[in-house]
Design brief:
Order of helices and strands: EEEEEEHEEHEEHEHEEE
Number of helices: 4
Shape: globular
Number of domains: 2
Number of strands: 14
Strand content: 25-35%
Amino acid sequence: MNALFVVGEAGAPPARISHRPPSAQGWLELLASGLTFDMSGLAPGEAASLPFDQPHFHGFEVVPELELLKGIELVPGGHIAGGGTMPPVLRTLAGLSAALALQLPVSAVAWHSAGTVMAPAYFARMVMNWLSGGVFPALGLAALVQAEDGSIASQGLAAFCGQEFQLEPRRDEHRTDTVKLALRVADHIVRRGPLTVPGPIEGTGLFAEPSQVGKLVWIWRQS
C-alpha cells in the first residue's frame, strides 16, 4: 500500500534519525537543520488520519482515493512545537517534507493548515522554488477559496504570517486574473510580514486594510 504523506501545520535540508523508539510505537524522531521533527503513523503503528473532509487538490493527473492510503504525519518535535509557526521551523519542515516525498513511495502530500492535498512532484517543485527565493506557493502551502460574491479568500496563510486576506474582484474580471492578483498578495504578505496599517500594496494597484478585529486583511482596487 502506498503512503499518504501527511504534513503538519507548516533546497531540502539534510536529515538523520535522532531517536528510534521500539518499532511497535510507530514513530521516529528526525533531526534537520538543528531542529527535530516527529514522524508518526509508521507500521506497525496506527496510521495518521487526514484532518479535513474536503481538501483542495493540486498537481494530480488522477486524484487518488485518499481512503485507500496509509497516512504518515510529520510535525515539529515536542521541544519546538510551541514555535511551530516560526519561519525557520516552517521552512525546514517544508524542505524536509519535500525531500521525503520524493524519496519515499508517496502518493500524496497533505498540508494541514491549508487543507490541501498535492501530488508529490508538484509539492516538492513548489517548495524547492520557494526555498530558493521564489514566490510563496499560495496554491499548496495555503489555499485560495472563491466566495459566492466572487471574492478570493486565503486559507492557511496565517500559519506563515499571522493573517488571512480577502480580495474583492472587479465586476467584469475573470477568476483567473483575480487568482493571479491573490497570489501576488499572498507572496507580499509572507515576505513583508503582517499588514498593520491601511495602505497600498506596491506595484499591484491594490489597497489593503487590516481588520480591527481578528486577523483578516481586506484587499480592493485603488481605483
